[in-house]
Amino acid sequence: MTTRYSALSLFKEGLAGQTGWQPAWRSPEPKPSYDAIVIGGGGHGLATAYYLAKNHNITRVAVLEKGWIGGGNTGRNTTVVRSNYYYPESVELYGLAHRLYEGLSKGLNYNVMLSQRGMVNLCHSTAEMEIGARTVNAMQINGIDAELFSPDDVRRVAPIYNFSPDARFPVFGGIWQGRAGTARHDAVAWGYARAASRLGVDIIQNCEITGFIIEGGRCRGVQTSRGAIRAERIGMAVAGHSSVLAAKAGFRLPINSYALQACVSEPVKPILDTVVLSPGCGVYVSQSDKGEIVIGGGLDRIPSYAQRGNLPTLEAVIAGVLEMFPIFGQLKLMRQWAGIVDVVPDSSPIIGESPLPGLFLNCGWGTGGFKAIPAGGTLLAQLLASGKHNDISRPFDLDRFATGRLIDEAAGSGIAH
Amino acid sequence: MQLFPCPFCGPRDETEFHYGGDAGNVRPDGIDVPTDRWAGYLYLRGNPKGTAREIWVHMICGEFFVMERDTVTHKVLSSAALDGEHAA
Amino acid sequence: MTASRLATGGSAIDRSRPIRFSFDGTIVQGFAGDTIASALLAGDVAVVGRSFKYHRPRGIWGAGVEEPNALVDIGGSRATPNTRATTEPARDGLVAKSVNATPSALADRNAFLDRFARFIPAAFYYKTFMWPDWHRFEPRIRAMAGLGTVDADWTSPGMADQINHHCDVLVVGAGPAGLAAARLAAGAGLTVTLVDDQQSPGGSLGYRAGEIDGKPAAVWVKETIAELAAGGHLILPSTTALGIYDHNLVGLNQRHFDGRPDTLWRVRPRQIVLATGAIERPLPFANNDLPGIMSADAAFAYLRRHAVLVGRRIIVATNNDSAYEVAGALAEASAEVRLVDIRRNGTPAAPANARLIKGRSLASASGKLRVDGVTLDDGTRFDADCVLVSGGWTPTIHLFGQAKGKLAWSDARAAFLPGDPVDGIAVIGAAAGAVSLSEVFAGAGPAFAPLGQTKAPLPRSTGPKATGGILPAWPIPGSKGRIWIDYQNDVTVKDVELAARENFVSVEHLKRYTTLGMATDQGKTSNLPGLALMAGITGRTVPEVGTTTYRPPFTPVPLASFAGARVGELMAPVRRLPLENVHRANGAVFQEYGGWLRPAHYGGYADAERSIADEALRARQSVALFDGSTLGKIEVIGPQAAAFVDFLYYNTMSTLKPGRCRYGFMLSENGVVFDDGVLVRLGEHRFVVSCSSSHVAAVHARLEEWRQDRFGRGAVYIHNATSDMATLTVSGPNSRKLLKALGLGLSLGDADLPHMAIAHGSYAGDEVRITRVSFTGDRSYEISIRADRAEPLWAHLRKAGQAFDAVAIGLEALMILRAEKGFIVIGKDTDGTTLPHDLGVDGPRVKRQTEFVGRRSLFTEEASRDNRMQLVGLAVPQGEAPLPTGAHGIKRIDGRLRSQGFVTSSYQSPTLGRPVALGLIERGATRHGETIDIQHLGKISKATITAPCAFDPAGERLHA
Q: Do residues C65 and C71 make contact, with C-beta atoms less than 8 angstroms apart?
């Protein structure tokens, strides 16, 4: 049996017909109780389980997934990894995630294909350039790599961009983060699952939460479609459906669920080397290693749990793409889909204990959860292991909505993340 | 493209409407409102999966109204003008 | 393979119009009516492309949208990468190139990759390339990936039309089922729209035999179409239904073949009838991907439509009845045909002149660049130049699936069929599993039943009796050789087995791990065999494995269709001033500010900076003219208007006297300053909210929301008069003199019209409103007049102003003037966290007793923090340049660099002869006189914190 992944093992397995590979993760029956339960088998949930085992030596852990692992927003996003944030609190959080991503393939022994091809957030006016400077300065002060790009710099990294004088949104410059890029989203979920499973974590698919076991005012387990499962520490990382579980646990969250669409063109040979975001066009674009042009835009404006895209938003997003890259007018749309995201008033995540003691939250990532997976997992694991925040997660506690200490990137930098 | 029934203008494209929040989220007045109550009014949402009762505005005529719809199937169940002088 | 064009026949081609085009640099001949694929087949071009991963040679598989192999880049002015050769009309002079092959499909230099296939199975990339680093490998992998090539010199043929359309019944598919349903619906008095993705209607009736209502099928098709057209029904050929969206909106993409971009239709029918047919599946056997192995049904279509005989020695392999007619027709066209049926019993009779071999299946095919023979499962070998396969039929139920229709597995059909009905959608014909024409027609009647019944009789058919009998022939685990499931993405039986071995047994995991069904054909031929194989491996039934989610579009759709007219300025139209042309004639240079196109400056000098400085300097010296028409003018009228503005504003407004104005903030409920501006009280019950230019729509919406939520319809009325009126501002020491020269018919004495008051006058017979407010710090008057009468007034001001050296100023000069005074611009000198007391306005927070928007939020822990960022002025050491806007004040905490605020506005003041700047700095209001470090792009400089106002702090110039 071959367990370790490497060029050599792939070669050996090639000679043996690829028949010696083990399951990437085990699928055991759920046990009646665990030391910790993580609800949600997406990137954040699987990473939480992995770090519980790896960082805290807590291995009697179950990940409970309603469907199939990585099937929520982890498998539906546009795979951008970046940490170009404004506030120190955000920088600490996303900076941690970014650093962990940089060591993830080796750490998990799973190639998550982190591709640091850089990202430019364009500025379309003098006013946007001033905000751009404010943001770049903030990033540099907070220790994140950032450059303020001139139009020529933008031309260098994205020569096919629309630099026509008639462009609706002319390029005045941009905010560049060279370490930003993309990673293979499915691989992140599967890599964490495989590594967690090997450390003893039980990954239980097709296991839906139907209720919480509450005793003495404290959460002591969950009722599931596969029976009751008990644990003293329960974390939930169920982006898009956080409010649904919160309702089952008896509390409300500052969240609305919206559909976020993404789409890809047919695959073409390399033509775009970086991630380009235009706030004016309301779109960001990259090209996957497979050759598809990957397109992300704004939310569908109607609260929804339907995981599908709608035509009006798609039309606006595609119009934005063609304004950015007119030569993409020769391309065809191959696939359109949507995920359901938690939208929080300040667009920052919620990490911390819920109003139900013993139940801990990892939610509210909005449109940007993928890039934060390693940090979301690390921080929720720490909360589950110790019951306490560390300095990085503390500002993101639910209590900020009462104190008013929101962390609103759009308010600070004018850039909606 | 969803069709929403404006109580004043009839069925119109979704792009003409703007979501206004949960119906029944009554504003508490005064500076003595407890912190959690005020935060609840400002931020906490039911966000139901299934039937939702919401405030919407038809941006063309400017009128706010209450709409019930299913957030999974997107089926519209009812819409009604605000009852008299105040929102529910 | 020795495919050839027959001397006669071909319903689609026009032999009087020969055409020539090039494929991979070779000339191909054909006729008008050929597709690229049919012409290539007629020219015996076997290898038309290379597979995505292994660069295997591939030939044409199908005759329609299901084609996985034959993709070409079309060059020239209508360049389109990844075009399906099977649906693209051949035209004279067209230049086509195979994708993913260099230099040609036939002689691809990456063909060697296939020899390493055993080392690069499904998902191999997750297991390697980690050391030393993925970045080392990625560029080469990336270059290998992708199919077609984007033409960098491409130019747009123009914007695509988008059409909204309503009808009673939309019928998707103009095969026998769709035509019958359309005809019946029309007969019931319903309006019908009939779409089909082929250029000519008929579907399988275009090549399969049959008589309908006593006529040959082709005649019936023609008559039905003519009848529908005569009835005024809309018939759209070459049109694909790409998706069913919310509330049963159907998106269609219509192709044109005259150089126009495609057209996007948004159709809202009362009833959708899906008559989308079915797609033939491949059969699993080793090397089943060789060129020359194709769909039996497609070969039949090519024979009848294009008079192309796909081979001379043909093996037809099948597990169902539909291939028998094909075999017979090919034999009749003088090919040597062997029909190999997996079934031992229940087969139809052997077609004339074809040899039938029952109870056998293909074990493997052989050949290098094209198939040269097959071996049966009993070891028998036959030479062949073409192998046609029919593995059964997969109903095309993508659209039904998109509409969240549940699928039901049918063992009899070995396929998923539509399950429980979905409101407003009917699925009929082969898409619903019907096999014979009579079955098809029987389903057509009820298709639009919710809308009415037809009295017309159903069409009656005679023709070959199809039984629909099928013996499933799914890929079998453990099979020998390389058996392809997904042709384009190179997914084989072994890959699916590998996925199962590694626990990727969920159908969605299978798809993602192996990329099965993720190619441009979206798995139209591969999905079902793939999941059936997974079922076999894991001991589950096919419905237990289930399908992946159906996602739009059904076939790839040009991005341009979705964009439509949203191109250039139409993508996000700017708002324009009524006097734009006048300003342009005066040399104004325009820029966009918050959605408005406004004069930045009037171009007095070639150098923009100098023009702006000159305007700002002269404004202080004499008098400036400024077009302030964008300023909000929202009227609030009614018995509770005063209470209303009190609630909406941070400042108490009800104490304002009629005829007077007051500056104030509007807050959001979270306490943040949302807008600032002047409120004018015209009368006891009438106010004008003058809000920021870029906030007019948002402020208006907010006023309406609170009116309806809290005050009610009878209490207040709100009217946005912003674009009704132009507002021209006259500012500066000589502003009153210039105004006097206009003769507005009112007293301009300071007693009658003091600062923060209004007066009414008239100009050229039109009423004007004069508001004495100032954003420059100088004596200023805003004149509001009907927008369509503003031009003579502006011209008069310019002319009369010559005596005072009046200067027209753009927004940039105004920005300098207001910054000199420390006046803020919301969103520039504030951010989304700024509370009113951060701007030095603490009075209402402390003193007001009545409720207002955002009030409670001013008393949170955060609002009471003592280190909040506060508005300040910032002065630089003498002789230094202005601070860069966006620079941060910095400090060190525990050795770490931290921001303590930032520069929000910064200019060189021509009047003061030194830079002025505003900023938001921690505890700034208490730190006047303190010097701090400022960092911009790594460089550090000094600035001293001051009061925001740098010019005329006593405000004497307001009255000068």
A: no
